[in-house]
Amino acid sequence: MADYFDRLNYTLGDEDTALEYAILPRHAGHVLGIAGCGGRLLPLLAAAPSRMTCTDISAPQLAFTRLRFALLEQTDHESFMAFMGYRMESMRSRRRSIFQQLVLPPADRRWLSVFFQSRSWEAPIYMGAFEQTLKRLAKITGLFTGKAGRGIFQFSQLDEQTEYYRNRFPLKRWKAVIALLGNAAVLNSLLYKGAFPPNNLGISSRAAYLEIFHTLFTTQVVRESFFLQMLFFGELRYPQGFPLECDPAIFQQAREGLRQCELRVVQADILDCAAGETAIDFVSLSDVPSFMPEVAGKNVLLRLAPVLSENAQVVMRGHLHVVRPDCAGFCDITHQYQADIARERTQLWHVQVYRRSPSSQVSR
Q: Burial, 63: exposed, middle or buried (Cβ in 10 Å; 0-12, 13-18, 19+)?
């Protein structure tokens, strides 16, 4: 597992950041979240929290997170889009010039400079191990489903897309792709290096993925999903699917939020990081509990409780492995956000939202 966390695994990410943005109350006091590649938390600054602590155990992920925040603070929206690679026409020389002008911690600058040079200054959003995996899978998807598979992206209306999916989409060949994607051994080999949490859903991984993609194809316009674009094209071709950080209004609000926010980026386990805090109002755990030993995962809310403010919210995700935590002192309020969860553009996640009960008293 150590090898997994020592690499730069994510640069675009595998979560739709619009979900946490929808859940986070505006003007929260203190937000604590897994940094990832920075894209998870950057949009949350648009909700104007007073404090934000971004934490991760991966040094490469934290370097990329600080890079993202530096771009937010020191450049404009167009430069951000060009540097990250959301603009397909962006020149690599411009990307290098933007980087050279950024103020970054010296250690980050050295590491990122070597890393970007080794990738010939290609688009950073495709540099992570996860994104590289999707690019390889896109080649397989193309071989199996061809133009007929990519044809589902021609529609902007859900009813037309659904008709295509039911009658003209190469479903049998797509299921062959799912057989590969649903193979835990393949995922371990391509990305997780043995760290992939075991499936505990009670159905096969193949069945889980068939359900995920059936939902995406029949309830969402697929060109609005960055995840499906990556899986079919190996790149982002439709701006409708760009993550929330690309929205000019959100970007500007996040930039303004950053000016008045006390921002910290910390290398630490999120529970250890939380233990030194008080009155945290919102915690974005991502799927970290899935990687914990069983007992630790079950106790994750109990460990957080002493440092949370009254009515604090905790959001956690699980993919093929879903943790059911001890909820003593918390209310499960997931049902309040079902509409937002249904709009999540990857549908890879079982999302759980908990609120600390005001009357709960949990001793440290």
A: buried
